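Dear Dr. L.,

I hope this message finds you well. Following up on our conversation about the binding site, I have prepared a predicted three-dimensional model of the protein together with fe (ii) ion. For your records, I am including the exact sequence and ligand specification that went into the calculation, followed by the structure tokens. Please feel free to forward this to your student if that is useful.
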Amino acid sequence: MYDLEKFEKTLKETLSSERYLHSQGVMYTAGSLAMAYDVDFQEAMIAGLLHDCGKLVTEMAQIKACERWGIALSPEELAMPALIHTKLGAVLAQEVYGVTETSIQDAIRYHTTGRPHMSLLEKIVYIADFIEPWRGSGSWVDETRKLAFVDLDKAVVKGTESKITHLKKQNKTIDKMSIKTLEYYGGISMSSIETAKNMAKITYHALEEKKGEEITIIDISTISVIADYFIIANGSNEAQVRALVESVEDALEKEGYFRKKREGTHNGGWVLLDFHDIIIHIFDKENRLFYDLERIWRDGKQIHIGDL
Ligand SMILES: [Fe+2]
Ligand SMILES: [Fe+2]
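The resulting structure of the complex is given below.
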């Protein structure tokens, strides 16, 4: 197992003293929650201790470290620098501290925003960050502390709601992943049509990237309750159909959208991916012509990617 004392020594040298104390608080809180929920408490303590290892003293130092480790930052991340340390931290955990478990790296990566479908360890670190003893007290902290040992998912909702309220009060931008976390764990519901549009865009670009042919978007929201959009595309051979399916699933999952079901196989010539609000059909050439979904769904409205 890892040498916690050595980790603490390195952390002390790279973080401010307040941040170091907070990290210790998160370590012990995560360890306690892990015991309560039957999760490996050593993993939880390491993830807790290292969760802010990317929070180098200044934002500039964090950005420079990202450059050094080849971590690309999106314009969105640069506009919300509070998110940079999570991405950096996951990489530093591996490169500097030698932590190889992806479960720990993911707990570090998502400790600020959460995400839908979190593992128990991810939830534990996410909550421990909110409630560790040095966070002081106040109504929502106290409530989240009580909930944390009774119902972790409810604690996720409480913590995320209070964070979003706090950001709103300060007129700060709220990152999309926090909203998805709140939505997934039952706090609020984003407008479903906006969600569907966003998913359709991600799908379109994922198909385009793998050279999907004749990508068609059909708005079926007014003629069917099964979904808002159908997206149809084809590959020229079996390998391309498989690549298109993987590209779409990866792209949507990365943004926190999880598949409800998949039907068909790439060697069968037709794969259906059901993502609740959108349904994606990926064919080989022959099957696309044979099934001719555009004709079957001709009452829907074919739309251009620019209309989304
Ligand atoms: Fe953090
Ligand atoms: Fe933190």
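In brief: The chain has two domains: 4-184, 192-307.

With kind regards,
A. P.
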